[in-house]
Each structure stands twice: as C-alpha cells, then as structure tokens.
C-alpha cells in the first residue's frame, strides 16, 4: 500500500480532533497502518514550538514572527514525522497543516498568501497533503461547541475575536473552491458518527 498524507482543516470547534480519532479507528479496523499527528506539533521540536505559539499573552508574537514559528514547527514535523511515515506506507492523518497558516496568519492575520506558501517551500519543500478534508460548520454552532469545551479558557489564537474567525472560515472556503482536486468540504453538522461516515466517503478514491 502506498502511503497517504491526509489533513483535516477548519476553524475552531468544528470537530477535527474528534473526527481524526474516529477516522483512525475506522481505517485501522480495515487493516491499515495509521499515524495520527497534529499541528502545531507532531514532533518533539514542533511540540516545543506549539507551547511558544499557543501559551502566553495575545501580543506575544507579531504576525510575521508567528508565521515563521508555524513554518519552523512544520519543517521539523514534515521531516521527522510525516515523510518517514508516508515512506513506510502509513496513512498519515494530520490535524491542521499548511492551510491553517494560510487562513490564520495569511487571510485573517494580514500576511500575503504567497509569503506563507514561500515559507512552506523553504521549510518543507512545499509538501502538500494528498487530500485535505475541510470540516464546515455554521459559525454559531462551532462557537457553541468551542465554548462548551473550553469553558472560557481558549488559547492565544483561539481566543481572537469573531471577525478574525469569520475571516479564517471564509479563507478555508476559498481555498477549497480554488483547489477542488485536493480539497473535499464535508458537512460537520449532525452526530459524530454521521460526520465520520461522510469523511470516509470523501477518502474512498484514495483507500484500498
Ligand atoms: N458531531 C458533534 N456533535 C456535537 N459535539 C461535537 C461533535 N463533534 C465534536 N463535538 C464536540 O465539540 C467540541 C469541539 O470538538 P473538537 O475538539 O473535536 O474540535 P476541533 O475542530 O478539533 O477544535 P479546535 O480546532 O478548536 O481544537 C468538543 O467538545 C467535542 O466533543
Ligand atoms: C497549524 C496552525 C494552527 N493555528 C492555530 C489554530 C488554533 O487556534 C491553534 C491550534 O489549536 P488546536 O486546538 O490544536 O486546533 O493554532 C494557526 O494559527 N496557524 C497554523 O498554521
């Protein structure tokens, strides 16, 4: 079996982490070897950078420093975790990847998309997922799920205002429209089991 690299994307609280775990279970039950990972993080160095990025004051980093830190974390994660797992034939399921930087630091953060993509070229040789599953949930529903989970304790980036998160959601929708071969947009409403079924369907052409 050829390895595959699959990312899950979307704004806060749409169900990415929940679905990543469920999808891994379904694929393992089919006999596939699955590596589950996340961004920022997924390698020792990238997890250390995650703490720098998500902890501390809202103004700890400016937009450019933030984008560079995400790109540095991604470079380590790609080299040490993602590429070796794909080369070993695993299905790699990754909670967020480059498109989160394009949406959060780029579209919502004010940096040019071309600059975010260039940082990724330098850091990670421009590696892209074979498939990006974009979970879509109405903003009010996503905010309610996040609020129930976080109980007011969102991290530095999750805690940004509604306009920022609306820009993130709009950017993801635009990326999916621009790259229909890589993206599948999946309705994240309904039960977790219903969403998992939709995600499995959106991977049908990639799986044995
Ligand atoms: N289908 C669902 N129906 C209702 N609640 C759900 C569903 N899926 C996930 N949740 C709940 O919504 C909350 C957010 O889900 P989850 O943490 O998986 O989202 P996420 O996209 O990974 O969020 P973030 O990017 O903010 O970390 C959790 O409390 C989770 O249990
Ligand atoms: C990869 C990536 C992430 N972010 C933001 C998005 C979230 O607010 C946090 C990660 O938290 P999660 O609970 O693990 O989803 O970081 C970002 O701004 N840019 C990125 O490239």
Automatic annotation (TrEMBL):
Binding of ATP, residues: 10-17
CDD domains: TMPK (cd01672)
GO biological process: dTDP biosynthetic process; dTTP biosynthetic process; dUDP biosynthetic process
SUPFAM superfamilies in the cross-refs: P-loop containing nucleoside triphosphate hydrolases
Pfam families: Thymidylate_kin
Keyword Ion transport: no
Keywords, sorted A to Z: ATP-binding, Kinase, Nucleotide biosynthesis, Nucleotide-binding, Transferase
Domain Thymidylate kinase-like: 8-197
Enzyme class, spelled out: transferase
Enzyme nomenclature, EC number: 2.7.4.9
Catalytic activities: dTMP + ATP = dTDP + ADP
GO molecular function: ATP binding; dTMP kinase activity
Assigned GO CC terms: cytosol
InterPro entries linked: P-loop_NTPase, Thymidylate_kin-like_dom, Thymidylate_kin_CS, Thymidylate_kinase
Family in the record: Belongs to the thymidylate kinase family.
Chain's role: Phosphorylation of dTMP to form dTDP in both de novo and salvage pathways of dTTP synthesis.
The protein, known as: Thymidylate kinase
Organism: Sphingomonas sanxanigenens DSM 19645 = NX02
Primary gene name: tmk
């Amino acid at each position: 079996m050829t390895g595959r690299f699959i990312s899950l994307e979307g704004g806060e609280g749409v169900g990415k982490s929940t679905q990543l775990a469920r999808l891994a279970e379904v694929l393992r039950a089919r006999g596939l070897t699955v590596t589950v990972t996340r961004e920022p993080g997924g390698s020792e160095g990238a997890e250390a950078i995650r703490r720098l990025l998500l902890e501390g004051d809202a103004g700890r980093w400016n937009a450019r420093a933030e984008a560079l830190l995400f790109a540095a974390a991604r470079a380590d994660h790609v080299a040490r975790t993602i590429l070796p797992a794909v080369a070993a034939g695993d299905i790699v399921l990754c909670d967020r990847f480059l498109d989160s930087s394009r949406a959060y630091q780029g579209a919502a953060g004010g940096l040019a998309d071309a600059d975010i993509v260039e940082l990724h070229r330098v850091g990670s040789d421009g590696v892209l997922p074979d498939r990006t599953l974009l979970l879509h949930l109405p903003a009010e529903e996503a905010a309610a799920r996040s609020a129930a989970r976080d109980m007011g304790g969102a991290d530095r980036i999750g805690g940004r205002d509604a306009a920022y998160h609306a820009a993130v959601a709009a950017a993801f929708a635009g990326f999916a429209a621009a790259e229909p071969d890589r993206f599948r947009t999946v309705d994240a409403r309904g039960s977790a089991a219903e969403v998992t079924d939709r995600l499995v369907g959106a991977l049908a052409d990639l799986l044995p």
